[in-house]
Specification:
This protein is an alpha+beta fold. 28% of the residues lie in helices and 36% in strands.
Length: 200
């Protein structure tokens, strides 16, 4: 025996209401996850960066009466990478640098936005061996602040740094790896893409 017309319509309506509620729940969940992505990213950076950079990447150091130790020669290798959520190209001008402890040096990096919309990015660094992190002093670094690049815009960024002469001499080979992250939430990225698609 089949249900009569009103009962059947009510059953269909109840199913539709359940589907709508589930859909709304999924949308709200995606929004909350996107909103929370930046704090999660900061927690992640704080835990994976043994150099102490975390989300702030330290503070600028003043280069005062620092003595150069020419008996302590340091070879630094730079590496760059970009998180998959950030459509940028990121490279360093020189992969290797050689300095004496206490001597200032400058390395230039270049970033390019490969997308059709403006995007905010932020770099964090990892240093190996981790023990070298406390001796790395930065006078100027693009990692201190957020970087905003317009559609297909390029930017040159500088790292001015030195290593404290107090660093143990057995530390003489160091790798510094910078990673750029998209600090905008997934909701903000989706909104920008939608606005770009409907733009005249």
């Amino acid at each position: 025996m089949t249900p009569d017309g009103p009962s059947r319509e009510l059953s269909v309506q109840e199913k539709n209401n359940k589907l709508v509620k589930k859909f709304i729940g999924v949308i709200v969940g995606m929004f909350l996850f996107g909103f929370a992505s930046i704090p999660i990213y900061r927690i992640y950076c704080a835990n994976v960066d043994p150099g102490g950079s975390s989300a702030q990447n330290g503070e600028a150091e003043l280069y005062g009466d620092t003595k150069v130790d020419k008996t302590h020669r340091i070879k630094i290798r730079f590496a760059t990478q970009v998180n998959k959520q950030l459509p940028w190209h990121f490279e360093v001008s020189e992969i290797n640098d050689v300095v004496f402890a206490g001597a200032k040096s400058v390395i230039t990096f270049k970033a390019k936005n490969l997308s059709d919309i403006p995007i905010k990015g932020k770099a964090v660094y990892d240093i190996n061996p981790p023990e070298a992190g406390q001796y790395l002093k930065k006078i100027e670094c693009f990692c201190f602040t957020e970087q905003t690049l317009g559609p297909h815009e390029e930017m040159d960024m500088a790292l001015r740094y030195w290593f404290d002469p107090q660093m143990p001499k057995e530390i003489h080979d160091i790798t510094i790896a910078y990673t750029f992250f998209n600090i905008e939430s997934s909701f903000e990225r989706s909104l920008k893409k939608a606005e770009n698609n409907i733009a005249p």
